C-alpha cells in the first residue's frame, strides 16, 4: 500500500524474501519460445506476411504510391540537380583514390544511386562513392597490382603497360566491390545486421579520421605531380611521405598552384555555405563552378602541353559491357572485403539514422544491408567500385529540400547525362583539381581531431578507443588497423567488466535509499552489517577480482578465519578429550599451559580438512570466537554478522563464476556470517536453480527483493535473538551445554564466565 503525502510517500508492505514474495504472489506460467518455435514462425506463410515481405524488400512500393506530387516534386528536382552535380565531381575525384581512371567513378555514382532508389529505406541519403571506402578499395587494388607483370611499382608506368595495368586495376576493384556486396547481401538476408554495433561511434570517428589522413597523403602525388611508388605494407604512409618529400624539387608548379587555389576557394565557400545555410535557398555549388572554370582555363591555355600537367584524359561515352569478377581476387581480398562491407554499412546506417530521427520515419538496418549489397554487386559488375554514402553529398540532398529518393533518381539522371553525352568536356580537367576537390571534402573528417578533448572530458575509455583506433589505422593501414581497433575496443569492454568499480553501500537519511558510503555525509551503517555492490556481470575473468574486492570491503578473508577456527577447534577438542580442559557449572578449568608443536604440524599437513564447516556438536560447550580462548589460542576476531550482496546490476553469471561465488558464500556461512543476495531478477534465479546452486548450506532463503528488505530482516532477526533470554531459567540446576549463536563458552540457560586455572601435578 502506498500513501502519498505531498512530495513524500509511505509504503506499507511485508518484508519480502524471494520465497515469501512468491508465496504471496502467484507467478504466471509463461511459455518461452524455443528455436523450433522461431523456425515455425519464420517459415510460416500467409497473404499478410507475403505482402509485408514484398514491401520490406521493395520499400519504394510503400512510399511511391503516397508521393505528394505537387508538394514534393519541385523540391526533389532542385535537390536532385544539386546532388547530381556533386556526385559527378566526387565520382571523378574518388576514382583517383582507387587508383583507376576517373571515368569509372561515374559508374559507381550512377549504379549505386539507382539500386538504392528501389531497395533503400532512407529517404535522404545519397548513395554512391565514399572517400574512405574508395581508399580501402584502392589499398587492396594497389596490393594486388604489385604482382602484375610489367608493373614498375610507380604511379607512372610506360605507355605500353599503362593501359593493361589500368584494366587489371579496374578488374580488381570491381571484384572487390562485388565480394563486398555479396557479404552485405548475405548479412542482410540472414538478418544479422546487428554486427555493426561492434563498431562504436568513437571507433568509427577515429577510423574515418585516420582514413582521411591516408586520403590526404595519397593525393599529394597528384597535387605535386610526382612519381610515387605504391605502398601497402604497415607503415606505408610514412614511406609515401618520405618518397614525396625526397623528390619535392620535381614538383609541377602549375599543378601545385592550381590545386592550392581550388582548395582555398572550395574551403572558403564551404564555410560560407555552412554559416549561412539558413539564409541561402540552396548551397552554392562551388565544386561545379570551380570545375567548369578549371576545365575551361586548362583547355584554353593548353596546360597539358605547355606545363605538362596530368589531366583526366580520354573518357569514352556510354557504358562498358559488364564483366565477371575474378575468383582469384576473392581469395586474396576476403579480409579487405569484409572490412569494406562493415565500414560502408556502418557509415551509411549512421548517416541515415540521423535523418530518419530528424524527419520521423522508420529505418530497417537489414534492408539497408540488402540495398547496399545489391548496389555494390551491380556496380562491380559494370566496373564501378564500392560505395556507401558521402556525408557532404547527403547533406546537400537533404539541405536543398530533398523529400524522397526521387531526388536520388534526378541526381542519377545528371550522372547519366555526363556518362552518355558531355563527359568529353571534362577531359582537359587537371587531376590535381580532382585531388583538391577530394581534400576539400575531408574537412569535416579531419576536424574530428577535436573529438579527443570532448571525449576525454566525458569518458576516458571512449577517448582511448578513439586515439588507439586512429593510431592503429594510420600506422597499420586501413584493413589491419580496423581489425586491431575492433579487437582493442572489445578488450576495453572486457577490461571494464573484469575490473568493475565495486562499492560498499550504506543507508542515507534513515530511509530505504542506499548509496556508496564514500559519496555522502549523512550515512547510517547498521552495526555488524556490510552491503557490497557489484555493478557488472560476474564471469570467469572477474570472479577472482570480485572475491578480492569483497574481502577488502569486509576487512578479512573468510577462508583464513575458517581455517584458523578449525585449527583452534582441533586443539580445544584434543584438550577436552585428554581431560586437560574441564567443564564445571561455574566455569572451565584448563590444566595445561602449552601445546606441543606436533599438533600444529598435524594441522598444516591436513589443510583441506580445515576448509570444512565448523562442527562443535561433539563438544559440551559453545565457543565464542570473539572471546578469549584457552591457552591464549589466537583466532582473528570479527564483528560482522551479516553480509548483503547487491546483485541488481549483475546481468549474468557463467558456470565458473557460479562455482566461485558458491565457494565464497560457503566460507562466510561457515564462520557464522549470514549472507543475503538482493536485487536479482527471476531469470537470474532460474539460472541458479538450473545449475543446482542451492543446497543444504546455501539456501534459497538468502534471496531478498531489495536491500531494505534484507536490512529489515536482519534487524528483526537480531532483535528476536537478543530477546529470547528468560531470567527464570537461571534457577534450573541442569547443566546442558550446547550451541548458542550469541557465542561464548556458554551453556544454554546462562552465560558461564571462562577463566584459566593452571594446576601443576
From TrEMBL:
CDD domains: STAS_SulP_like_sulfate_transporter. Belongs to the SLC26A/SulP transporter (TC 2.A.53) family. One of its GO terms (cellular component) is membrane. This is Solute carrier family 26 member 3. It holds the Pfam family Sulfate_transp. Keywords: Membrane, Transmembrane, Transmembrane helix. GO terms for molecular function: secondary active sulfate transmembrane transporter activity. It comes from the Eukaryota. The lineage of its organism: Eukaryota, Metazoa, Chordata, Craniata, Vertebrata.
Amino acid at each position: 500500500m502506498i500513501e502519498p503525502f505531498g512530495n513524500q510517500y509511505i509504503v506499507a508492505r511485508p518484508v519480502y524474501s524471494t520465497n515469501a514474495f512468491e508465496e504471496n504472489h502467484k507467478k504466471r506460467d509463461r511459455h518461452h519460445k524455443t528455436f523450433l518455435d522461431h523456425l515455425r514462425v519464420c517459415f510460416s506463410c500467409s497473404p499478410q506476411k507475403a505482402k509485408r515481405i514484398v514491401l520490406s524488400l521493395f520499400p519504394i512500393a510503400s512510399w511511391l504510391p503516397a508521393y505528394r506530387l505537387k508538394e514534393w516534386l519541385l523540391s526533389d528536382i532542385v535537390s536532385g540537380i544539386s546532388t547530381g552535380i556533386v556526385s559527378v565531381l566526387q565520382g571523378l575525384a574518388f576514382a583517383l583514390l582507387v587508383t583507376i581512371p576517373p571515368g569509372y567513378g561515374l559508374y559507381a555514382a550512377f549504379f549505386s544511386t539507382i539500386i538504392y532508389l528501389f531497395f533503400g529505406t532512407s529517404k535522404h541519403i545519397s548513395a554512391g562513392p565514399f572517400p574512405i571506402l574508395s581508399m580501402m578499395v584502392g589499398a587492396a587494388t594497389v596490393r594486388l597490382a604489385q604482382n602484375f607483370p610489367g608493373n614498375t611499382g610507380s604511379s607512372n608506368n610506360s605507355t605500353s603497360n599503362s593501359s593493361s595495368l589500368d584494366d587489371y586495376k579496374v578488374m580488381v576493384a570491381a571484384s572487390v566491390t562485388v565480394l563486398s556486396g555479396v557479404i552485405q547481401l548475405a548479412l542482410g538476408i540472414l538478418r544479422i545486421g546487428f554486427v555493426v554495433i561492434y563498431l562504436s561511434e568513437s571507433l568509427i570517428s577515429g577510423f574515418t579520421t585516420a582514413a582521411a589522413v591516408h586520403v590526404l597523403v595519397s593525393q599529394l602525388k597528384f597535387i605535386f605531380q610526382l612519381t610515387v611508388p605504391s605502398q601497402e605494407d604497415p607503415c606505408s604512409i610514412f614511406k609515401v611521405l618520405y618518397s614525396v618529400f625526397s623528390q619535392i624539387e620535381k614538383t609541377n608548379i602549375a599543378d601545385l598552384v592550381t590545386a592550392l587555389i581550388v582548395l582555398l576557394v572550395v574551403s572558403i565557400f564551404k564555410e560560407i555555405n555552412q554559416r549561412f545555410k539558413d539564409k541561402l535557398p540552396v548551397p552554392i555549388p562551388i565544386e561545379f563552378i570551380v570545375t567548369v572554370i578549371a576545365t575551361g582555363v586548362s583547355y584554353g591555355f593548353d596546360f597539358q602541353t605547355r606545363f605538362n600537367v596530368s589531366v583526366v584524359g580520354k573518357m569514352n561515352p556510354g557504358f562498358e559491357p559488364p564483366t565477371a569478377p575474378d575468383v582469384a581476387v576473392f581469395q586474396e581480398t576476403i579480409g579487405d572485403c569484409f572490412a569494406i562491407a562493415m565500414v560502408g554499412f556502418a557509415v551509411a546506417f549512421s548517416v541515415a539514422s540521423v535523418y530518419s530521427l530528424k524527419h520521423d520515419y522508420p529505418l530497417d538496418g537489414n534492408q539497408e544491408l540488402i540495398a547496399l549489397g545489391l548496389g555494390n554487386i551491380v556496380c562491380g559488375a559494370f566496373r564501378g567500385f564500392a560505395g556507401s554514402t558521402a556525408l557532404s553529398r547527403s547533406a546537400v540532398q537533404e539541405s536543398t529540400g530533398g523529400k524522397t529518393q526521387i531526388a536520388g533518381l534526378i541526381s542519377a539522371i545528371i550522372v547519366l547525362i555526363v556518362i552518355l553525352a558531355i563527359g568529353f568536356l571534362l577531359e582537359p580537367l587537371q587531376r590535381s583539381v580532382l585531388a583538391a576537390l577530394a581534400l576539400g571534402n575531408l574537412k569535416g573528417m579531419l576536424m574530428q581531431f577535436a573529438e579527443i578533448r570532448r571525449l576525454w572530458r566525458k569518458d576516458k575509455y571512449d577517448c582511448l578507443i578513439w586515439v588507439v583506433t586512429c593510431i592503429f589505422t594510420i600506422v597499420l593501414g586501413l584493413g589491419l588497423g580496423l581489425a586491431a581497433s575492433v579487437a582493442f575496443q572489445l578488450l576495453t569492454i572486457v577490461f571494464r567488466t573484469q575490473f568493475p568499480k565495486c562499492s560498499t553501500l550504506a543507508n542515507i537519511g534513515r530511509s530505504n535509499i542506499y548509496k556508496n558510503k564514500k559519496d555522502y555525509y549523512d550515512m547510517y551503517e547498521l552495526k555488524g552489517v556490510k552491503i557490497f555492490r557489484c555493478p557488472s556481470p560476474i564471469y570467469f575473468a572477474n570472479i577472482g577480482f570480485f572475491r578480492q574486492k569483497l574481502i577488502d570491503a569486509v576487512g578479512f578473508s573468510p577462508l583464513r578465519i575458517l581455517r584458523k577456527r578449525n585449527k583452534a577447534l582441533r586443539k580445544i577438542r584434543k584438550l577436552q578429550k585428554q581431560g586437560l580442559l574441564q567443564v564445571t557449572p561455574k566455569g572451565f578449568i584448563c590444566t595445561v599451559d602449552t601445546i606441543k608443536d606436533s599438533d600444529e604440524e598435524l594441522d598444516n599437513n591436513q589443510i583441506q580438512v580445515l576448509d570444512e564447516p565448523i562442527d562443535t556438536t561433539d563438544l559440551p560447550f559453545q565457543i565464542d570466537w570473539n572471546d578469549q580462548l584457552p591457552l591464549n589460542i589466537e583466532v582473528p576476531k570479527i564483528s560482522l554478522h551479516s553480509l548483503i550482496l547487491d546483485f541488481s546490476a549483475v546481468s549474468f553469471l557463467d558456470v565458473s563464476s557460479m562455482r566461485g561465488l558458491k565457494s565464497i558464500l560457503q566460507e562466510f556461512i561457515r564462520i557464522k556470517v549470514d549472507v543475503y543476495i538482493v536485487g536479482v531478477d527471476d531469470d537470474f534465479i532460474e539460472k541458479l536453480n538450473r545449475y543446482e546452486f542451492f543446497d543444504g548450506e546455501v539456501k534459497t532463503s538468502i534471496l531478498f527483493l531489495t536491500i531494505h528488505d534484507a536490512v529489515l530482516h536482519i534487524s528483526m532477526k537480531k532483535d528476536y535473538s537478543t530477546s529470547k533470554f528468560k531470567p527464570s531459567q537461571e534457577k534450573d540446576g541442569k547443566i546442558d551445554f550446547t550451541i548458542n549463536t550469541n557465542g561464548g563458552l556458554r551453556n544454554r540457560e546462562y552465560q558461564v564466565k571462562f577463566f584459566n586455572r593452571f594446576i601443576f601435578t
